[in-house]
Amino acid sequence: MSATELYHLTRRSLVAQIGREGLRAGPRLFSGGDHTDSELDRIYGSRPVFLSSEPWVSGDTWSDIGSASLATHELALFAVNVIGLRLLADVMSLIDKGAYLEEGSLWFEQRDHPLLSWEDDGEISYELVRTDLALGVAALTWTGTVACLDPIIPSRLRQITIK
């Protein structure tokens, strides 16, 4: 990975469509479930495209696409040129790192987390998550993932062979 490239992992069956249309926020052909989808809609106003600093493919399966466990041969990996894209904090990854969701904000029980400087009254508002690009960069450094609401056109994508 370079500073200008992140990764997106998806189902191989979507490769032709992604090649024509690129990646975009909005409803998914598969999802993480009703609860996750409604949380994403509430936080971001849509369902973002998630990108990671690592390809996250190892072994024979990868199980975080929706709720299905997929064999490696069912997956497609793309490198994404992120220059000029708005990269936002991935709240679901922040939850994995100990964040709690409240109405309109998230907060951490631990007082030494790396996003402390963004807190206001001990919370980080969803509005800040949706707008503060520096928060997105800091979250990427900590979690290895970001959310993107910008359309990602096909010319920004390069498919990578999964070994």
Q: In a nutshell, what does this entry contain?
A:
By secondary structure, the chain is α+β, with helices and mostly antiparallel strands. The protein has a domain at 5-90 and 135-160.
Q: Let me know the number of strands.
A: 11
Taking Cα atoms only, what radius of gyration do you get, to the nearest Å? 16 Å
Principal-axes geometry comes out as elongated
Roughly how much helix do the residues carry, as a percent range? 25-40%
First-to-last CA distance = 16 Å
Class by SSE composition:
alpha+beta
Stretches with pLDDT under 50, minimum 5 residues: 29-35, 59-63
Largest sheet: 3 strands, antiparallel
Query: What's the pLDDT, averaged over the residues?
Result: 84
Number of helical regions? 5
Hey, roughly how much beta strand do the residues contain? 25-35%
SSE diagram, text form:
Blueprint lengths: L4 E7 L3 H7 L12 H11 L4 E4 L8 E5 L2 E4 L3 E7 L5 E3 L1 H6 L2 E4 L2 E4 L15 E2 H6 L1 H11 L1 E4 L8 E4 L3
Antiparallel strand pairs: 1-5, 2-10, 3-4, 5-11, 6-10, 7-8, 8-9
Descriptive terms for the model:
alpha+beta; 3-stranded antiparallel sheet; 5 helices
Give a description of the structure.
- The protein is an alpha+beta fold and about 160 residues long.
- It has a domain at about 5-90 and about 135-160.
- The chain is built from five helices and eleven strands; from the N terminus they run E-H-H-E-E-E-E-E-H-E-E-E-H-H-E-E.
- It has helices at about 15-20, 35-45, 90-95, 125-130, 135-145, and strands spanning about 5-10, 50, 60-65, 70, 75-80, 85-90, 100, 105-110, 125, 145-150, 155-160.
- The strands form four sheets. Strands 1-5-11 form a three-stranded antiparallel β-sheet, with no helix packed on it. A three-stranded antiparallel β-sheet has the order 2-10-6. A three-stranded antiparallel β-sheet has the order 7-8-9.
- The longest helix is centred in the first third of the chain and has 11 residues, at about 35-45.
- The radius of gyration is 16 Å and the shape is elongated.
- About 25% of the residues are buried.
